């Protein structure tokens, strides 16, 4: 109960509980005192018979017995309950019924007192020799009535008042000094008994109040403890579960994994699932629709897996599944295929094929969840690189690749400080491969153990290691050095293209760094081109401002690996794109592939309609070159013309290929 609630809200139920306690105590005491009253009545009848008052004594005894029977029946009669199905306890007695029973007890006590008052007839108004016996009996039963009715004063008072007033009245009527004194003593005795009855009731009510308050407090404390336990359990559940899907969250997943056996005879299988096409749902239909997709995916996962399998939403559109392979007949690869099929079922709200899932799988005998997560994440990345709705099981190839990534992460900082990294340059040719227009800068690192490191791995590791900006500055320095060399050779019309990863675009203020560097070296922005991947175009809001600032300065913008990622005509316009580079997967072997020729022709048509230059990457053979010229492709790049070269070799190649420069 809050402190603002009125005290009466507590007083009423407490008063009812006290009254119920009084009734229960009265009923118990009456079951003891009424039989005693019957025995005393029988003895009184015997005395009356002895003194020749047999008829009067018998009538009196019958009246007394009738009242006692009524009192016994009243004590046995049921009290109406608040909840008939609950036990008979003070807190379950109906308040109105309790008041009614107390009233009836007092009324029948008064009737009994009236009957005992008529005992004066048996001793001639307390003047006969047997008067002493009857006075002693009356004195005893009145005192006993106070004791028996200690819980409810009105009942014994109703009983003793008729008895003692009749005694005093008869004594006064008989006259005589000694009788007057005895009558006065009787009145004093009556007053003392009344006061004693009231004080006994007050003590009982106080005791009952304390008992019921203590009980109420104990119940409140128990309820508070239960509420605290429930609240703690609820908070614990919320802390361990995803609010949207109801699945385990990352924290709950890690806790559940920690409680599993540390090893399995056949192995644990961890699957990381990442939805394909989820961002397009958010963009096209809104985040509420995206939330419904996540809920449905969670439901399908839970429905497709048994209860002993851990299923979690780690965040965003990434889910995790962990199972003991000993408990399943199917292999993790088969299970992954089934999950892909379950999630790929068309959603009622969206077009078929919009949602897919890529799954990375790691199987390990040891329950090292951190290592398993790293391996499953590497497998997931490999699966996504192969297209939609694919899964990949962590294997020796990925294990070697992961070891390489860890060595890179350990050594890249030292390599940067020791200038061990190199920036190589590959020519881009225009006019159907007859004229040099650009050089593309490509970072290289010859690792002491793993040899040449792929640029994508180097950039990714640098980003995770907090070295994205030092690596970016390192590459920009060499790019600017090439630009300075070209200007010194009167080749300022040639551009140098520099690749930017999505992480660099999102993590770094690339516009400020580039513009500041160009101005410091007094280099024209028109000599620089920034190449971004289609993945970078997914989050236009985070890169649009940076690219707009670069474009305003005069830096050209190109989209690399066009055709394999996510981009649209609106994104090409919003990102101020000057050039798109067709991914090499469509160029290699184009002479033998009709489908690739159609794709390239459509991209060339798109570029022409939008006024955007198109470059074909990965030209390897003369046959590919011939087909590209037939399709009308003007700009090209590939090993057929020149491989990536260090700075000095690239300059030597340009000097030897002056006919391509003019």
Detailed description of the structure:
By secondary structure, this protein is an alpha/beta fold. The protein has 3 domains: 8-220; 250-394, Alpha-Beta Plaits (2-Layer Sandwich), CATH 3.30.70; 422-661, EAL domain (TIM Barrel), CATH 3.20.20. The chain has helices at 8-50, 54-76, 95-117, 131-148, 154-174, 177-240, 250-258, 278-285, 287-304, 332-344, 369-385, 396-417, 455-464, 468-488, 502-507, 510-521, 540-553, 569-574, 584-587, 594-610, 622-631, 647-656, 658-661; strands at residues 263-276, 310-315, 318-324, 356-366, 391-393, 421-430, 435-447, 451-452, 495-500, 528-533, 556-562, 579-582, 613-616, 635-636. The strands form 2 sheets. Strands 6, 7, 8, 9, 10, 11, 12, 13 and 14 form a 9-stranded mixed β-sheet that branches. A 5-stranded mixed β-sheet has the order 2-3-1-4-5, sandwiched between helices. A hairpin with a 2-residue loop joins strand 2 (310-315) and strand 3 (318-324). Helix 1 runs antiparallel to helix 2 (54-76), helix 1 (8-50) runs antiparallel to helix 4 (131-148) and helix 1 (8-50) runs antiparallel to helix 6. The chain crosses the membrane at residues 30-51, 102-121, 133-152, 157-174, 180-197.
């Amino acid at each position: 109960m809050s402190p603002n609630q009125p005290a009466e809200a507590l007083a009423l139920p407490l008063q009812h509980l006290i009254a119920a306690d009084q009734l229960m105590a009265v009923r118990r005491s009456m079951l003891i005192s009424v039989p005693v009253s019957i025995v005393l009545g029988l003895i009184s009848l015997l005395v009356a018979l002895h003194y020749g008052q047999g008829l009067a004594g018998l009538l009196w005894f019958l009246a007394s017995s009738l009242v006692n029977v009524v009192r016994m029946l009243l004590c046995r009669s049921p009290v109406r309950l608040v909840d008939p199905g609950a036990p008979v306890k003070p807190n379950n007695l109906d308040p109105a019924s309790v008041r009614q029973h107390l009233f009836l007890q007092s009324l029948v006590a008064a009737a009994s007192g009236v009957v005992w008052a008529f005992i004066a007839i048996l001793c001639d108004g307390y003047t006969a020799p047997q008067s002493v016996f009857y006075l002693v009996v009356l004195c005893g039963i009145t005192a006993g009535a106070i004791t028996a009715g200690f819980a409810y004063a009105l009942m014994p008072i109703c009983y003793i008042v008729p008895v003692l007033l009749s005694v005093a009245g008869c004594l006064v009527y008989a006259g005589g000094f000694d009788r007057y004194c005895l009558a006065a003593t009787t009145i004093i005795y009556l007053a003392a008994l009344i006061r004693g009855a009231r004080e006994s009731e007050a003590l009982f009510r106080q005791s009952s109040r304390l008992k019921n308050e203590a009980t109420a407090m104990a119940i409140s404390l128990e309820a508070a403890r239960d509420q605290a336990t429930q609240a703690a359990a609820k908070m614990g559940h919320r802390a361990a579960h995803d609010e949207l899907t109801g699945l385990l969250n990352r924290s709950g997943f890690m806790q559940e994994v920690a409680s599993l056996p540390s090893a399995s005879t056949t192995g644990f299988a961890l699957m990381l699932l990442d939805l394909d096409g989820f961002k397009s749902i958010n963009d096209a239909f809104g985040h509420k629709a995206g939330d419904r997709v996540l809920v449905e995916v969670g439901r399908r996962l839970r429905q497709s897996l048994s209860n002993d399998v851990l299923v979690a939403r780690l965040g965003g559109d990434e889910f995790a599944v962990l199972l003991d392979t000993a408990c399943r007949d199917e292999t993790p690869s088969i299970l992954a295929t089934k999950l892909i099929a379950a999630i790929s079922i068309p959603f009622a709200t969206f077009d078929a094929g919009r949602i897919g899932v890529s799954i990375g799988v790691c199987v390990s005998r040891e329950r090292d969840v951190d290592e398993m997560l790293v391996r499953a994440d590497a497998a997931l990345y490999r699966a996504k690189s192969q297209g939609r709705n694919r899964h990949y099981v962590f294997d020796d190839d990925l294990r070697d690749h992961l070891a390489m990534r860890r060595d890179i992460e350990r050594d890249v900082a030292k390599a940067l400080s020791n200038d061990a990294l190199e920036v190589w340059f590959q020519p881009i040719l225009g006019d159907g491969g007859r004229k040099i227009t650009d050089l593309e800068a490509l970072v290289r690192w010859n690792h002491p153990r793993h040899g040449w490191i792929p640029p994508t791995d180097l950039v990714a590791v640098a980003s995770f290691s907090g070295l994205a900006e030092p690596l970016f500055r390192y590459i920009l320095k060499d790019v600017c050095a090439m630009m300075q060399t070209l200007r010194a050779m009167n080749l300022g019309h040639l551009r140098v293209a520099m690749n930017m990863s999505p992480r660099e675009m999102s993590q770094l203020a690339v516009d400020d760094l580039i513009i500041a560097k160009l101005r410091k070296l007094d280099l024209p922005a028109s000599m620089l081109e920034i190449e971004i991947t289609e993945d970078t175009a997914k989050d236009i809001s985070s890169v649009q401002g940076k690219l707009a600032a670069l474009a305003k300065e005069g830096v050209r913008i190109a989209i690399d690996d066009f055709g394999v990622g996510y981009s649209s005509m609106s994104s090409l316009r919003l990102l101020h794109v000057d050039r798109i580079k067709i991914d090499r997967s469509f160029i290699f072997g184009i002479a033998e592939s009709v489908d690739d020729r159609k794709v390239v022709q459509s991209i060339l048509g798109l570029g022409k309609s939008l006024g955007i230059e198109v470059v074909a990457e990965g030209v390897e053979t003369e046959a590919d070159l011939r087909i590209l010229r037939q399709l009308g492709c003007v700009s090209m790049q590939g090993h057929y013309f020149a491989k990536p070269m260090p700075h000095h070799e690239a300059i030597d190649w340009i000097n030897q290929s002056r006919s391509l420069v003019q």
